[in-house]
Amino acid sequence: MNIAIIPARKGSKRIKNKNIKLFNGKPIIAWSIIEAKKTKIFDEIIVTTDCEKIARISKKYGAKVPYFRNKSLSSDRATINEVMNSTVKQLKQHNPKIKFACLIYATAPFLMKKDLIKGFKAIKNNNNLEFVISISKFKSTFYRSLKVKNNKIFPLFKKYISTRTQDLSDLYFDNAQFTFGKVSSWIQKKHPYLSNTSYVYIPSDRVQDIDTKEDWKRAQILLKVLKN
């Protein structure tokens, strides 16, 4: 059995009601739910939340909200791994047949069914894998990173300042779209970065952080461009 879990708490300091704010005509969480349903690989799509309004909207678009998240897992300090660990444990108690659980982020409007399907096939067909995450490549080399202090710049990686860009390795980041995991790995509180983890590569032009109002506007424009 394969389930999707979408964490969506009500607290959001930088963008009010971020998880259900209208994004190009739909609550942003709806984009994740709808795309997950399109794949037809999930037996259930679960939203874990502490908010009745989020629950109501999630159900409207086809997700289930079997219970509300407790306060300790709804604070700013709660990590996504702690939320997944708790949620998977509860769901596993009611349905021991659950084998895979996919974390899908509530603010992932660029999520595509083909990537989810690719991730599921990867973890399903390789018993050694514990996780499969969606990643993208940094647009500019991270080895050229600078920090600023007292109006001066300092290179983070001094040994690479004279290295040609083409000789530097590509670096990647978790683009916060999804993470497939074995239920056993979530329950053991394993971290995808420190486990036997593979990836699904997503081009960086289909990725956008949505943490500020400026990010939000940029993401709305990008989605319109991609849809056209």
Explain how this protein is built.
- It contains six helices and ten strands, in the order βββαβααβαββββαβα.
- It has a single domain (2-134, 174-227), classed as Spore Coat Polysaccharide Biosynthesis Protein SpsA, Chain A.
- It is globular and about 60 Å long.
- The chain has helices at residues 28-39, 52-60, 80-94, 113-124, 183-187, 213-227, and strands at 2-7, 22-23, 26-27, 44-48, 100-104, 131-137, 146-149, 152-155, 172-182, 197-201.
- By secondary structure, the chain is an alpha/beta fold.
Instruction: Name the shape in a single word.
Output: globular
Q: How many domains comprise the coordinates? A: 1
SS strand fraction:
15-25%
N-to-C SSE string, H for helix and E for strand: EEEHEHHEHEEEEHEH
Uncertain segments: none
**Which CATH architecture would you pick?**
Alpha-Beta Complex
- Please summarize the sheet with the most strands: 6 strands, mixed
Look at the structure and give the mean pLDDT: 94
Strand order of the largest sheet: 4-1-5-9-6-10
Work out the helicity level: 25-40%
Determine the number of helices (DSSP H or I, runs of at least 4 residues). Answer: 6
CATH H-tier superfamily: Spore Coat Polysaccharide Biosynthesis Protein SpsA, Chain A
Number of strands: 10
Question: What is the CA-CA span between the terminal residues?
Answer: 35 Å
Structural class, judged by helices and strands? alpha/beta
State the name of the first-level CATH class. Answer: Alpha Beta
